[in-house]
Design goal:
The chain is an all-alpha fold and 404 residues long. Helices cover 80% and strands 0% of the residues.
Length: 404
């Protein structure tokens, strides 16, 4: 009786093993039926069989179990109908091939095929990420490029050859992350690109701008300086560093940076305009005047330069006029006349620049430009009033009223 009981127990212990191995074989056969006969139901039967097999104690640690599962889900992803029905098929294929390559199974014979297929999976992730970008779906793109980075790390950690272009993948992941406001992730990815020595100054610029948006000016400056050290002639990095100095009224540093930028791009009127403004801010009138004039040589249609250069003379005239008003009775006739002459000469120097600026065809639909234009007209009207040309004063007053 004891002997019979033992046999029965042994038989019951063997049956599950046989049944589960049968499920692995059946799954593979179902896959073959699908590939050979396009039997639509066979693939799902294979999926059900292999999903049972990975849960069973006897087959869950077999390399071929996971390899076959990878093949089935991989095939599902490649088929448009199944891809739509099973949207996570690519993820499951990747997970299965990874498991096949790491499970402790010396009898596993399809290692090379699993490596090749997992590399194919990585290319599919990259391809889908690019397509998601073009379809304005950066969230999906980020997930796909992120998964590709995870695959790259898996290959490296397990000393497996990889076909993944990690630089292109990381760049795309960073761009996608920035578009969906995953700022922390994007910054880390841009730092990874810098560590990879990816040859593109834009990665320094992108990281620095994110740091600046978060209010970390010193980190932003450090990133920009690292970029400039590597790309000393990159005007974009220089300008971004300059803008931080200008925003914080660090005029001396701004002037040095502008001179550096002009050495790189000597025909850039905007740089001369910015340098003139920086000189203006530290009351260096002589250099401001010369620099503004250089900007106009390069771009005779630059409204802001006409406005600033006219204002350079106009503001000096206003200071003298205030002195005349405050000290008028205390001044000798000779000194009074001398100050009036100085004031009027400055008005006369300012007027041509205001006139030329007012004559430009500018976009008055832009609120900032419209405001600057009205300010120029007001200064121009004041000059004509001081010079006694009241017809012009009336004409300009009407022009201002039409713009308000």
């Amino acid at each position: 009786m004891k002997k019979l009981l033992i046999v029965l127990v042994l038989t019951l212990m063997v049956l599950p093993l046989t049944a589960q191995n049968s499920k692995v074989v059946s799954a593979f056969n179902y896959l073959n039926y699908f590939n050979r006969d396009n039997d639509r139901g066979a693939l799902e039967k294979g999926m059900e069989a292999i999903d049972d097999a990975i849960l069973h104690e006897r087959t869950k640690d077999q390399g071929r179990t996971w390899y076959y599962r990878g093949l089935i889900y991989h095939t599902m992803y490649e088929d448009p109908e199944y891809q739509e029905k099973y949207p996570h098929s690519l993820d499951e294929a990747a997970r299965s091939y990874e498991k096949a390559l790491t499970v402790d199974d010396r009898r596993f014979r399809n290692r090379d095929e699993a490596i090749q297929n997992l590399n194919t999976i990585s290319m599919l992730y990259f391809q889908r990420g690019v397509e998601s970008f073009t379809q304005n779906n950066p969230s999906q793109a980020y997930q796909d490029f992120k998964k590709n980075i995870e695959l790259f790390n898996f290959f490296n950690e397990n000393d497996i050859p990889s076909a993944i272009d990690i630089e292109a993948t990381t760049l795309n992941a960073a761009l996608a992350a920035s578009q969906i406001n995953k700022t922390s992730e994007a910054k880390e990815l841009f730092r990874n690109l810098i560590d990879l020595e990816y040859d593109n100054p834009a990665i320094f610029q992108s990281l620095a701008r994110m740091q600046l948006d978060e209010g970390d000016e010193e980190a932003s400056l450090a990133t920009l300086r690292s970029g400039i050290e590597k790309y000393p002639d990159n005007i974009g990095l220089i300008i971004d560093e300059l803008n931080i100095y200008l925003a914080n009224e660090r005029h001396e540093e701004a002037i040095a940076k502008l001179q550096e930028a002009i050495n790189v791009d000597k025909e850039n009127a905007q740089l001369y305009y910015a340098l003139g403004t920086a000189y203006d801010n530290i009351e260096d009138k002589e250099n401001a005047e010369a620099t503004y004039k250089k900007a106009l040589e390069l771009d005779p249609t630059y409204f802001d330069v006409y406005n600033n250069l006219g204002a350079l003379y106009y503001n000096q005239a206003i200071v003298i006029n205030q002195r005349i008003n405050e000290e008028g009775r205390q001044l000798s006739d000779r000194k009074y006349k001398e100050l009036v002459d100085q004031r009027d000469k400055l008005y006369e120097k300012a007027l041509p620049y205001f006139k030329d600026g007012a004559a430009l065809d500018i976009n008055l639909e832009d609120p900032a430009m419209r405001s600057s234009y009205i300010g120029l007209l007001n200064a121009k009207r004041e000059i004509y009033a001081r010079l006694g040309n009241y017809d012009k004063v009336s004409e300009i007053r009407a022009q201002i009223q039409s713009l308000q």
